[in-house]
């Protein structure tokens, strides 16, 4: 198939929910992607933070193939060894370097939105009996596209066309404003520590710690959406660990199985659900959990041998020098770990930079109004970083002043 044929098929048979760039990739190798015409790209997007250990990682491919040759799926009606092992691994990694190790349980699903749905259910069940049902989220947040997670998303323009929505979602302007919305009906606060769609600026650490302490005194759950920030993307297993907080609920997904669909909810509310309260047909099946186990193993090694730290430092050095060298294009750098962004001088530049990047063989993403987002594979090599930034510089030079 050539590009024109793919476009025609897509146009005729796929619902038009995405504004796609005119490119189709056929293979990859770590942070390199190759399109249908054989053109090579350095991928600074990793499928929006999904391909955490790069494309076509040989040991992940082997783990998936091995599992597929044995058993893809059974059902959550039966015990699933890989699921139990992945839950153990997530909890043990979470408890690493924590003195008072919390007792935690994990629920598995297939996506970020589903993980947040589970969190919303946990919050509602937690508040049951004392009429506490309100969940506070933040403006510019993004929590998913199911009806409840969309309603939790603090971007009211995204709610057009799809109401009526479930009640009880309240939006705060920022962390300080959360306090203004708390009342006796509040059961939880749900937030991202670095907003993926909302501009990549990390939340203030002191304010988050203060909020976490305050919510505990009020018996209100702190639920952190780590769908994008989690699984070592911010330099630790979860951004919550960077902030030194222990949320009651953490949701995660994207990078957990390196590209195989998966979602997970970690909670210290170990008895919140009873049999039948929640479930998922595919969630935590042998295949996705085999992929999760291999992905975590690789990422944890990168973390413990400090390669991840070095990669983060190099990436940030490159971003800083880009801001220094292109002050007419960028104002400043933001981000945490390998979830980074560059603010543009003019939001109109954002799509031009993304298109010019693609033209020059480097993939970058958008975030919010006018931010260029970078979410490379955590396994990206120094050479791939240097090559990607060299291409991006050429792309920026090609933009008319
Ligand atoms: N929460 C956050 C912070 C996200 O970034 C996303 C996806 O981009 C989601 C939730 C929804 O995840 P999914 O698209 O897997 O449902």
From TrEMBL:
<dbReference type="InterPro" id="IPR005814">
    <property type="entry name" value="Aminotrans_3"/>
</dbReference>
<dbReference type="InterPro" id="IPR015424">
    <property type="entry name" value="PyrdxlP-dep_Trfase"/>
</dbReference>
<keyword id="KW-0032">Aminotransferase</keyword>
<dbReference type="InterPro" id="IPR015422">
    <property type="entry name" value="PyrdxlP-dep_Trfase_small"/>
</dbReference>
<dbReference type="GO" id="GO:0030170">
    <property type="term" value="F:pyridoxal phosphate binding"/>
</dbReference>
<dbReference type="InterPro" id="IPR049704">
    <property type="entry name" value="Aminotrans_3_PPA_site"/>
</dbReference>
<comment type="similarity">
    <text>Belongs to the class-III pyridoxal-phosphate-dependent aminotransferase family.</text>
</comment>
<protein>
    <submittedName>
        <fullName>Aspartate aminotransferase family protein</fullName>
    </submittedName>
</protein>
<dbReference type="InterPro" id="IPR050103">
    <property type="entry name" value="Class-III_PLP-dep_AT"/>
</dbReference>
<comment type="pathway">
    <text>Amino-acid biosynthesis.</text>
</comment>
<dbReference type="GO" id="GO:0008483">
    <property type="term" value="F:transaminase activity"/>
</dbReference>
<dbReference type="GO" id="GO:0042802">
    <property type="term" value="F:identical protein binding"/>
</dbReference>
<keyword id="KW-0808">Transferase</keyword>
<dbReference type="InterPro" id="IPR004636">
    <property type="entry name" value="AcOrn/SuccOrn_fam"/>
</dbReference>
<keyword id="KW-0663">Pyridoxal phosphate</keyword>
<dbReference type="GO" id="GO:0006526">
    <property type="term" value="P:L-arginine biosynthetic process"/>
</dbReference>
<dbReference type="InterPro" id="IPR015421">
    <property type="entry name" value="PyrdxlP-dep_Trfase_major"/>
</dbReference>
<dbReference type="Pfam" id="PF00202">
    <property type="entry name" value="Aminotran_3"/>
</dbReference>
<keyword id="KW-0028">Amino-acid biosynthesis</keyword>
